[in-house]
Amino acid sequence: xxxxxxxxxxxxxxxxxxxxxxxxxxxxxxxxxxxxxxxxxxxxxxxxxxxxxxxxxxxxxxxxxxxxxxxxxxxxxxxxxxxxxxxxxxxxxxxxxxxxxxxxxxxxxxxxxxxxxxxxxxxxxxxxxxxxxxxxxxxxxxxxxxxxxxxxxxxxxxxxxxxxxxxxxxxxxxxxxxxxxxxxxxxxxxxxxxxxxxxxxxxxxxxxxxxxxxxxxxxxxxxxxxxxxxxxxxxxxxxxxxxxxxxxxxxx
Length: 252
Description:
The protein is an alpha+beta fold. It has six helices and 13 strands. It has one domain: 4-Layer Sandwich (Penicillin V Acylase, Chain A), CATH 3.60.60.
C-alpha cells in the first residue's frame, strides 16, 4: 500500500475516515477482503505469500494499516510487515500499547509506517522515526517516513479535506484515490500519482473506511487489473461493538 489518508475527529458526521491504495507487484498472490476465521473478527485482504494483511478492521471499529518505507535499505527481514496489522487486530491492546510494542520489535521487520486506531486514539509508529500520537485532523502517508511530504500525500490530504463535509464521501474518496499523474518519468509518477499502473507493479486495490457518529462502520474495497480496470468490490456495513467486548472475541 502506497497511499493512506486518514481523518481522525475531523468531520461532523464521521469520527474516523480512511482512504488507501495498496500498490504491489502484480505477481504477489493475495486475496480480496473478507472476514478471517483466525484471528476472528478481522476484516481485510490477505497476503497469500506471507500470510498477513496491509489493512484491516475489526468489529469494534479498530483499524490498522501498514506501508513500506523506501529508504534504500534491504527489504528482506525475519517477519512480514503484514503481521503488524494482524498482531494488533488479533489482540486487545490499546493503540498506544500496540504502537510501543511494534516500535520495540521494529528490528524484526523491513522499514515500515504503521497506523493504529483503537476507536479513541490514532497512533503512528515506525522502525525509522519516533512513535507519535496523531492529533485530530487529516494526515497522509505514503512510502516515506512520517514528516517527509511527497506531492501525492499533499494532494491526497487537501483533496480529502474538501470531501469531509459531504453527507456521503465514499464515492468521492474512491475518485480521489483514482487520481493519476501524467508525469513523464516513472519516478515522478510514483511521487505524484495516487493511482499507479504498470505491467509489473501498480495499484492492486483501493479501500475506503467510514465510521460515523453512531458507530456504524462501512468498509469498501475495490480490486483492479494490471491495466487499472475494476475487477471486483467488497462492501461491509456493521454496527461496531463496545471495546469491552474485545477481550471476549480474542478468547474465542
